[in-house]
Each structure stands twice: as structure tokens, then as C-alpha cells.
Specification:
The chain is an alpha+beta fold and 752 residues long. The protein folds into five domains: 1-147, no CATH class; 149-280, no CATH class; 283-388, Beta-Lactamase, CATH 3.30.450.20; 398-517, Beta-Lactamase; 556-728, 2-Layer Sandwich (Heat Shock Protein 90), CATH 3.30.565.10. 54% of the residues lie in helices and 17% in strands. The protein is built from 21 helices and 19 strands. It has helices at residues 4-16, 21-42, 51-73, 82-110, 116-146, 151-173, 183-198, 201-220, 233-282, 300-305, 315-318, 324-340, 390-413, 431-436, 448-454, 460-472, 519-556, 560-583, 591-599, 618-637, 683-696; strands at 284-290, 296-298, 344-350, 363-373, 379-388, 415-421, 426-429, 445-447, 477-485, 491-502, 508-517, 589-590, 607-610, 614-616, 647-655, 662-670, 699-705, 708-716, 720-722. The strands form four sheets. It has a six-stranded antiparallel beta sheet, sandwiched between helices. A hairpin with a 5-residue loop joins β9 (477-485) and β10 (491-502). α4 (82-110) packs antiparallel against α5 and α6 (151-173) packs parallel to α8. It is rod-shaped. It starts with a helix and ends in a 30-residue tail after the last strand.
Length: 752
């Protein structure tokens, strides 16, 4: 009826893999030879040499079947889908057919009376039936060893097998009747379906084996339907083989189908779980909408995003909390998507109700969906996801505001930003950057070569060296000052601060930073350095002047008191001059103001000053003031200002009879006491006669006439400037009083 040995050999070889080919083949050969020798001893006339080709045929059958299955499906073969079951049946059929053909040829050779076709048919049927009923059981046992079934499945499968065995035994022992042909199959079918649907393929293979044992036992021991001796042995064997084959095929296919279904359901559950994890991780809500019925299905997150505490059931209801200004936009955009066939992706606002966690807020929602179309291409619904993008929208708004502020502040503050793509060699620049570098308005991109071409030629080497060193040392932050030459030729100072990002292999990829126009600061720094140098120079000059005044006053003084008084007055005059220079910020000083301040202690009735409006440069003001001070001091002690009737006249004018222009200052004393000259010049005389020629390149004529002292001073015009109104220089300076209070101290016995 069937060959269990063929099934055991094939199942063992498939379950154990290619490593078991030689052991299994040797075992089959040895068993076949032993069996054949025993048969030869019992059956006289049978050749013992027939055992050799039969053993090779028996060994070749599992080898061919296992090799085909391994070639088609690889290692770890399982009967868990229909495709594999069909492949298993095909390989088993080919292996059994080849082995049967070999056996038929061998038997015909040694026993010429045997009919080859009958031999082939009997061998093929028994081998194939053995493989189909036994091999799946061994394959399932291997899988069970590797992965033990759950306890409930073991109990359920064992119960089904025992029930099937009990039903089979009961049916076999029933008396013969008209119902005996179909009742066994009908009774066992329910249990077989139960095993195939509920359990893994191992239990289906075991159920097939139980049915096979029942049918074979009935036929062998002449019990039940298949043991009816009134029916020929050949017919009973054929019927038994047919029933076993049908049950085996039905059970294996059903088990594979339901195994596929269980696997698909498990994969679907895993997919849903992964999808839910993805939705939860991305904070997405899923939905589906049916245009025909208006039905809407959505999860809890999609409902909450749209302001609902419980999921809405219809499309109309889902729009309840959508901002009314966005409803028309939604309808228009969806209609366009339906017409053009594109996916519908849209952003709109939602205003949640008072009982919602986001009550009082306006939330931004993004929907991304696909349009579901019917057989004729007509849109029937939507399938998509929604998400709350309020934080993203707020960030966009804040970024837009900051960019707008930067765009407004950049040109005003002379600050520009840039982003440099190292590989592409391009810079994305802001409006402030373009304004600083003198680029056309609206320029948003430039190249590294264009930028380097604007760098001052003297700074190119420093800039490139700084960049290369920064990249070589993998520094992230950098700061550099350099000059640029704008398209209009103007030179500007730039302070650049940047940050560099590097790839995993240390290659610079992107540089972002700002460029600040620090030209004003640089000019201020240069002005400060110049001012400090000028101040240092002037302080040294003042100290030198004071030192000379001290030395000369000491030589001209007859006593300590005269020295102190003379030094005090001269330093006071020097201080008045410096006060004027300070008030004019060390620019031009009005000559009128210098003379008036020196003559201020005396009555306006005793002085007469006048001349065109002009100013003296700071370098000339100090020298002229010292000379006027010495003339005034001498007039107060010995000249016209020493008596109430004397007068001093000071006039100045431009002398234009030569080139270049020269300024003439004339000092004239009248109605004062007679003045006599001295045999030895004093310090004052030396100041008057030598200071102007030495410091300013001018000329001085000093005359001690009996009617009064005269002094004529000529100064080159380069030391003076004509002005329309001297008041513009000393707007806040009060005019000094022209009255004199108390007697003047005597500076010495000799005039000047």
C-alpha cells in the first residue's frame, strides 16, 4: 500500500539538511540489501543481486527529492505556505517516479516475467504515499524542536489527534452498511479542519499520519470498509491509497493556507503596531473619509487635534472647529486636487472649544492625504494623516520676524550675515552684507572668488592664511579684521566672525557668520592715536615752554618775590591761551579774544583795540599770546597802563602789497610816562623779539620811544584765517571784563 521507509528517509534528509545525505543514503542502501536478502531466503528463485539496483533506487529517491527542494527553496524548508506544499508534492512525485522507473528496469532484468508498467505503478504509488504521509511529520518535528509551540496549542493539537484516532477506531469497528463508504471521511473531515485551522502544520501532518494508519490497518487486517474480502485486494488497495492521498493533500493544503493566514495576520498586527508607533512618535493622527456616505473614521489623536474629545463620525461634523476663514480655502484646494489628481496636502487653523486642553488658542493643522479612486477613476474618498504644526508655525513666524528685523537693522547697523558652502564655493548673503560690500540691491548670492577679489590687495595673504590655518586646525570659531575695496573705490574695514562645521572625516563643509563694518571704529582708533600723539607733542611743548619761562624769569628777577610774581603772571597768561585753545578744540583762535583777555584787567578807557575778523591757528596763538602778555606787563609797570592818562592802541591788518599775504599787528602806547631803553635785554624783550621770528617765521620791530613803546609784528598769512564772524568759534565764551581791580605787582626794576 505505501512505503513508510521512503517517507522516513525523505523526511529525515529534508529535516537534517545536506549534511545528512551520505549517512541517510548508506542507511537506505544497507536496509534495502538486508531486506532483499531476507526475501530471497524466503522466496526461492529470486536473485540476490537484485538487492543492489533496488538499494540504489531506494537511496536515489530521497536524494533526488531533497535536492530538488533545496534547489527551489533553500535550507530550512517548511510546509507553511501553498507554494512550498506544491513544490514538496512536485519534488516527491519526481523522486518517486525516477526511483520507480529504476526499480522497474532492474526487476524486469532479473525477472523477465514481471510487467514493467505494473512494477513502476506499484513502486511509484507506495513511495509517493509514504513520502506525503511520513515526511511532513518529520519536517514538523524539526520545527517543533527549534521553536516549541505554546502550551495551549500543544494541548489543543494533542486533543484533536486523540479524537481523530478514537473516531477512526470507532468507524473501523462499525458493522458494514451502506453508509460505510462516506461516513469515515465525513466524520474525520471535521477534526482535520479543526487541526488545519487552529494548529501549525505539524499537527496537520500528524493527523494525516493517524488517518493513514487507520486506513492501512483496516486494509491489512481485513477490518472495516477497507477490509471487505468480497472486494478484490487490488481494488481495496487502490481505494485505500486514494483516500489517504486525498486526505494528505487536503490536510497539507488547508494547513498551509491557514498558516499563511495566521502569518499574514501576525504581520498585519506588527504592521499596525509599527504604524501606531510611527504615528505616536511623529504625533500624527490617521483618518479616512468616504465621499459617497460622508462617513469619517479617525483615531483619538486626529480627533483631539481638531478640537474633539470624542471622534467625529462625519466629514461635516469634523469641520465644526475649523477656522471659518479657512473653510472656503479648504474646499477650493480640495476641489483642485480632485480635478488635477494630485495628493491633497493642506494647512489650516482650528479653534478648540472651551473644554479642550488648547481652549482659547488658534492651532495650525497640516493634513497629508491620498485621494482614493474607484474603478472608473472617480474620487471616492480620502486616506491620510494630520498633525499639529502650531510650534512649527510659531517658529516660522518668529524666524520671519527676526529675519525682517535683521533685514532692517543690518544695513543701518552695518552688519551682514552669510553662509558659505565650501564644496560649491558659493555664499548666501543678506541685504546688510550686500550693502556693506557695495553689491547691487537684491543680491542674495556671490562666490568665494568674487569675495576674495574685493579684499584689499595688502590683506589677501592674511585672509587666505587665516582661513587655511582655521581649516587645518579644525577650529569652529574664528574672528578676523581686514579691508575691502568696494566697487566705487571706497576702502572699508570689515570684522568677520564665523563658525565652521566639519564632516565626519574632518573636511570643512559649511561656514556661517557675520560681517561687521568697523570703518568708523577704525577711524576713531586712528584719530585717537593721532590725538594722543598730538597731545603728547603739545604737552612736551608746554612743559618745554614752562621750563624756559621758569629759567628766563629766574634770570630776569632781582628777588625771590619778583621771580614768583613774574612766573605766576606768565603761567597765568599761558593758561588763558590754553583755555582758549581748549574751548575751540585746538582749532583756530580769534586774535581779538587773545588781545582782550590779556588787556582784561585794565579799564576799557585805557585801551583801544580793533582790526578785521580773523583767527590764528593753534600753533601761532600761543606765541602771539606770550608776546602780547609781555607787552601788556611792561605797559602796566612802566608804560601807558601805569598811569591813568596813558593809553594803549592795538591794531591789526592784512598787508597785501606782497606775496604771500602777511598779518601786521601794531602796538602803540601814548600819553604814558617817558620810557627809556636798557643796556641789557630782559627776558620779556627776548620773548617779543625772538619768539615770533623763531616759531612763526615772522618779523618784530620793537622801539622804546620817549612818547611811548611801539611794536610792529608781522606774521605770515599761513598762520591766520579770515572769518566773517568770530562769534561762531566762541559761542559760549563770556567776554572778559575790561576793568582793573587793585594795583599790579611789580615784576622788576627795568622795563621789559
Amino acid at each position: 500500500m505505501f512505503s513508510p521507509a521512503a517517507g522516513i528517509a525523505t523526511g529525515a534528509l529534508i529535516a537534517l539538511g545536506s549534511a545528512a545525505r551520505l549517512p541517510v543514503a548508506l542507511a537506505v542502501v544497507c536496509a534495502t540489501i538486508a531486506c532483499s536478502l531476507i526475501e530471497c531466503s524466503l522466496m526461492m528463485g529470486r536473485s540476490p543481486w537484485l538487492a543492489v539496483p533496488l538499494s540504489l533506487a531506494n537511496a536515489g529517491q530521497p536524494l533526488i527529492t531533497a535536492w530538488l527542494i533545496e534547489s527551489w527553496f533553500g535550507d530550512g524548508f517548511r510546509l507553511d505556505d501553498v507554494r512550498r506544499v506544491v513544490g514538496f508534492l512536485a519534488a516527491s512525485t519526481i523522486g518517486a517516479a525516477v526511483a520507480a522507473a529504476a526499480a522497474a528496469v532492474a526487476i524486469s532484468f532479473f525477472q523477465p516475467t514481471a510487467i514493467p508498467l505494473n512494477v513502476w505503478r506499484l513502486w511509484f504509488a507506495s513511495s509517493l504515499l509514504g513520502i506525503i504521509t511520513i515526511a511532513p511529520l518529520l519536517i514538523g518535528l524539526r520545527d517543533t524542536v527549534r521553536q516549541r509551540p505554546p502550551r495551549h496549542e500543544m494541548i489543543e493539537g494533542a486533543t484533536a489527534l486523540m479524537t481523530l484516532a478514537a473516531i477512526g477506531a470507532f468507524l473501523v469497528l462499525l458493522p458494514r452498511g451502506a453508509w460505510a463508504t462516506t461516513l469515515p471521511v465525513a466524520a474525520a473531515l471535521f477534526v482535520l479542519l479543526w487541526v488545519a485551522v487552529r494548529c501549525r502544520p505539524l499537527f496537520a501532518a500528524a493527523a494525516t499520519f493517524v488517518v493513514t494508519l487507520t486506513v492501512v490497518s483496516s486494509t491489512t487486517f481485513n477490518v472495516g470498509h477497507f477490509g471487505d474480502t468480497t472486494i478484490s485486494s487490488a481494488d481495496r488497495i487502490l481505494a485505500a491509497q486514494t483516500i489517504v492521498l486525498a486526505v494528505a493533500l487536503l490536510t497539507l493544503v488547508l494547513a498551509a493556507l491557514f498558516s499563511e493566514r495566521r502569518r499574514s495576520e501576525a504581520e498585519l498586527r506588527q504592521s499596525k503596531e509599527r504604524l501606531q508607533l510611527a504615528l505616536d512618535g511623529a504625533e500624527l493622527g490617521a483618518f479616512s473619509a468616504d465621499f459617497a456616505t460622508g462617513r469619517l473614521e479617525c483615531d483619538s489623536r486626529a480627533a483631539q487635534i481638531h478640537g474633539f474629545m470624542e471622534a467625529p463620525m462625519t466629514i461635516k461634523e469634523s469641520r465644526r472647529f475649523v477656522h471659518r476663514d479657512d473653510l472656503l480655502r479648504i474646499d477650493a484646494d480640495l476641489a483642485e486636487a480632485l480635478q488635477t489628481g494630485r495628493a491633497w496636502n493642506f494647512e489650516y487653523r482650528v479653534v478648540p472649544p472651551p473644554n479642550h486642553p488648547h481652549a482659547g488658542e488658534t492651532r495650525w493643522i497640516a493634513v497629508e492625504s491620498s485621494i482614493v479612486r474607484g474603478a472608473r477613476g472617480i474620487a471616492v474618498g480620502l486616506l491620510g494623516v494630520t498633525r499639529d504644526i502650531t510650534p512649527h508655525k510659531r517658529a516660522e513666524q518668529a524666524l520671519a520676524e527676526r529675519n525682517a528685523q535683521l533685514a532692517l537693522a543690518g544695513p543701518a547697523a552695518l552688519v551682514g550675515s552669510y553662509a558659505y558652502d565650501v564644496d560649491a564655493g558659493k555664499l548666501q548673503i543678506s541685504e546688510g552684507y550686500a550693502a556693506i560690500h557695495g553689491l547691487p540691491e537684491g543680491t542674495s548670492e556671490t562666490t568665494i572668488r568674487e569675495w576674495l577679489a574685493r579684499v584689499h590687495p595688502e590683506d589677501v595673504a592674511d585672509v587666505t592664511s587665516f582661513r587655511d590655518q582655521m581649516f587645518a586646525e579644525k577650529r569652529n570659531l574664528g574672528k578676523l579684521e581686514y579691508r575691502i575695496v568696494r566697487s566705487d573705490g571706497e576702502v572699508r574695514w570689515i570684522e568677520r566672525r564665523n563658525s565652521v562645521s566639519y564632516s565626519v572625516d574632518g573636511r570643512p563643509e559649511r561656514v556661517v557668520g557675520v560681517s561687521i563694518d568697523v570703518s568708523e571704529r577704525k577711524r576713531a582708533e586712528q584719530y585717537q592715536r593721532t590725538l594722543n600723539a598730538e597731545l603728547d607733542h603739545r604737552v612736551k611743548n608746554i612743559l618745554a615752554t614752562v621750563r624756559a619761562i621758569i629759567a628766563q624769569t629766574r634770570e630776569a628777577s632781582g628777588s625771590q618775590a619778583d621771580f614768583v610774581a613774574g612766573l605766576d603772571h606768565r603761567i597765568e597768561s599761558l593758561a588763558r591761551t590754553h583755555e582758549l585753545l581748549s574751548e575751540t578744540h585746538w582749532h583756530d583762535v580769534p586774535l581779538l579774544e587773545i588781545i582782550r583777555r590779556e588787556l582784561a584787567p585794565y579799564s576799557a578807557r585805557n585801551t583801544d583795540i580793533g582790526g578785521p575778523n580773523l583767527t590764528l591757528k593753534a600753533e601761532a596763538a600761543q606765541g602771539v599770546a606770550m608776546v602780547i602778555h609781555e607787552l601788556t606787563t611792561n605797559a602796566a609797570k612802566y608804560g601807558a597802563l601805569s598811569s591813568g592818562s596813558g593809553r594803549v592802541t592795538v591794531r591789526w591788518r592784512w598787508l597785501q602789497n606782497g606775496s604771500p599775504d602777511r598779518l601786521v599787528i601794531e602796538w602803540q602806547e601814548i600819553d604814558g610816562p617817558p620810557v627809556g631803553g636798557t643796556s641789557q635785554p630782559s627776558y620779556g624783550t627776548n620773548i617779543i623779539r625772538e619768539l615770533i621770528p623763531f616759531e612763526l617765521g615772522g618779523a618784530v620791530e620793537l622801539t622804546f620811544a620817549t612818547e611811548g613803546t611801539k611794536c610792529r609784528i608781522e606774521i605770515p598769512g599761513v598762520w591766520a584765517n579770515r572769518t566773517a564772524d568770530p562769534a561762531h568759534i566762541l559761542k559760549s565764551s563770556p567776554m572778559p571784563s575790561m576793568s582793573h581791580q587793585g594795583p599790579l605787582p611789580k615784576l622788576g626794576e627795568a622795563p621789559l
